[in-house]
Amino acid sequence: MDEVDRAILAVLERNGRISNSELAAQVGLSPSPCLRRVRSLEEAGVIRGYRAVIDPAAVGRGLRVFAGVRLARHTRTEVVAFEQGVMAVPGVVACHHITGSFDYLIQVEVADLPAYEEFHANQLAALPGVATVNSFVIMKTLDTA
Hints:
39% of the residues lie in helices and 21% in strands. The protein has helices at 3-14, 20-27, 31-43, 76-87, 113-124, and strands at residues 63-71, 92-97, 104-110, 130-137.
């Protein structure tokens, strides 16, 4: 991967819907070589996909919470049961296995605080192996784009 590939990736991260001709102009290539590079990056798995970024509030998920979860035990069976369970729960946007005070950091998007209270009590805390849950309500997100 060279500097041109990195430039292509930087532009696509900001605007995945950019036309190939616009992308080529921004990175200093003609359209054909630019398209070949993009396809090569896709085939190599560097570009894993394209997606729409949805406004959570517009679709009834206006409250974003990070939940730090600690498991009671770390047997393979319990870890697998927790991971399968958490990914099946509506409202879970992402789940990260982390180091530090928690075992998992889960991003949750729900309608509002009462919806999170229900989610916390009846879904998250009820998952296999959960010992503790610490919730961090997001007040504001700074956009880096």
